[in-house]
C-alpha cells in the first residue's frame, strides 16, 4: 500500500491535501497538534491520525513509526506551520516568537524531511516530497518577519533536498500559496478582503485549500515527474508586477 504522510491535517491545506490523496488511493498517515480534531470528513477513507508536534523529535519519530507500519512511504507533504502568536514590527520581534515559528516551520520540516528521505532511500523505490511554503518566502511582511524568514528557509530546503535526493529517484518541490482561506488567515480576513477588492490578486478571489491540494496531488503522483527543486506559485497572479 502506498503511504502518503501529511502534516497539519487537522485543517486547511493539510486536511484538503489528505482528503484528495486518500480519494486517489493513498493510505494517508497524518499528524496534527490537536488532541480532538474534527475528522468527520475522513469517514470511509484510509486515513490514520497521529497527534503530535513536528517541532519535537518525539513527534516526528511517532509519525514516521506510524507511516512505516502502514506500508511503503511514497509521498511526504509538509504542510504544518504556524504564524507568530502576535504580529509585531520586526524591530520588536522577540526571540521567543522567532524560536516558536522557526522550530515548527523550518526545524520541524527539515528534520522530518531528513528522516522520511532516509526511509524512502532504504525502501529503494523513489518517492515525492512536497513542501508547502508561502508567498511570504519572497514577499516582505514586516509585522511577521519570523514567518517570512521561516518560509524562505523552506524554499532553500526544497532546493537542497532536491539536489541531494535526485539520484535516489525522489523529487522535491514546493508550492507557494498566496492568500488562502484557512484558520491562519481568518484573523486578518477583513484586511485581505479589502486588498483583494482593491486588485491585489488579479483573479479577484481568495484561494482555497482545495486549490492547493490539487497541485499537491499532481506533484505527488508523477504528473510532474521531471520537475524537482521547483517552486510552483499559486497566488491568483498576485506575484505579477503591474503598472
Q: Describe it for me?
A:
The protein has 243 residues and is α/β, with parallel strands linked by helices. It has one domain (2-233): Rossmann fold. It is 42% helix and 17% strand. The protein has seven helices and seven strands; from the N terminus they run βαββαβαβαβαααβ. The protein has helices spanning 12-23, 57-70, 95-123, 145-165, 183-186, 189-197, 209-220; strands at residues 2-7, 27-32, 47-51, 72-78, 127-132, 170-177, 231-234. The protein has a seven-stranded parallel β-sheet with strand order 3-2-1-4-5-6-7, sandwiched between helices. Helix 1 links the parallel strand 1 and strand 2 (27-32). Helix 3 (95-123) packs parallel to helix 4 (145-165). It is globular. It starts with a strand and ends in a 9-residue tail after the last strand. 44% of the residues are buried.
Secondary-structure blueprint:
Blueprint: E1 2-7, H1 12-23, E2 27-32, E3 47-51, H2 57-70, E4 72-78, H3 95-123, E5 127-132, H4 145-165, E6 170-177, H5 183-186, H6 189-197, H7 209-220, E7 231-234
Helix pairs in contact: 1-7, 2-3, 3-4
